[in-house]
Amino acid sequence: MADGNIITALMLGDVCGQPGMRALFTGLGQLIKDYHSDFVIVNGENAAAGFGLNEEQKRQLYTLGVDVITSGNHIWQQEDLTQSLINDPNLLRPLNYAPKVIGHGTTVVEKKGKKIAVMNLQGRVTLPATDCPFRIGAEAVRDLKKKTHVILVDFHAESPEEKKSLAFYLDGSVSAVVGTHTHVQTADELILPQGTGYITDLGLCGPSESVIGSDPAISIEKQKTQMPLRTKIADSAPMICGVCLKINSATGKCISIERIKRKFSF
Question: Residue 252: which residues within 8 A CB-CB, separation 6 or more?
Fold first, then answer.
């Protein structure tokens, strides 16, 4: 790893359908080279046409250089992923679901002699009922701190207030809290007072000309008619959105956070 104790991590937003997978096929390798990245986290919960992640896509993401796949409320929608949710420690679902729900909410990965922990949490505003992400998150941090100072949190949530509140609550105890779920990249990246990197939403890895990944025509019709029309992933030039974090592995503090947005044409 470059510069001794410095870990460079890419955290990328929700992969949306085949355009999102195409974006990663096309651009992730170059992104890793450009940022000299040591570690890659991708949220994969919308990869399968917007609803979950299938087994083949999981394998493809690992082949492309992804180290940990995070997720959210759609992750259980592809049945062929069930055994991976049980057996693959680096495929995460939100930690704050009920204790008997299958899957893992945290993992610790060793890369080039450095240990990096990843935690996945889900918000409670306008999302399915879950346990408190604040309490569950703080408890998990205490356990993870016994293994590493570097802890990266994907908070899959709707509310900016809830996201930023959690970030301040965990400030200084984790290296970064990044939001996913809304598919709209925010421009509020910063390092909080105690050294935690933050952004309200990483954005979308998927179609650039879309309504949060969906075909605009269908989204417009839904709004005009209020009918429960099934959304369809837009077919437009794909993009990758996320952040690059530099973290001091000795202290766990974030020393820089840079927003990433790359569009690809075919």
Answer: 148, 149, 150, 151, 174, 175, 195
Predicted TM-score (pTM) above 0.70: yes
Tally the residues of the chain: 266
Angle of the 55-64 helix axis to the 17-35 helix axis, nearest 10: 20
Residue 67 DSSP SS3? coil
Alpha-helical (H) ranges within the chain are: 17-35, 55-64, 82-87, 133-144, 160-170, 216-225
Query: What domains does the chain contain, in order, with CATH numbers?
Result: 6-263 (3.60.21.10)
pLDDT tens by residue, 207-258: 999 999 999 999 999 999 999 988 899 999 999 999 999 999 999 999 999 9
Largest CA distance in the chain: 58
> Active site includes 74?
yes
Residue-wise DSSP of 185-223: --S--EE-TTS-EEES---EEEESSSBTTB-HHHHHHHH
Give the C-alpha separation, 127 to 190, whole Å.
26
- According to DSSP, the β-strands at 204-207 and 6-12 are unpaired
247 forms bridges with which residues in the sheet? Answer: 7, 254
Active-site residue, from 74, 149, 181, 183: 74
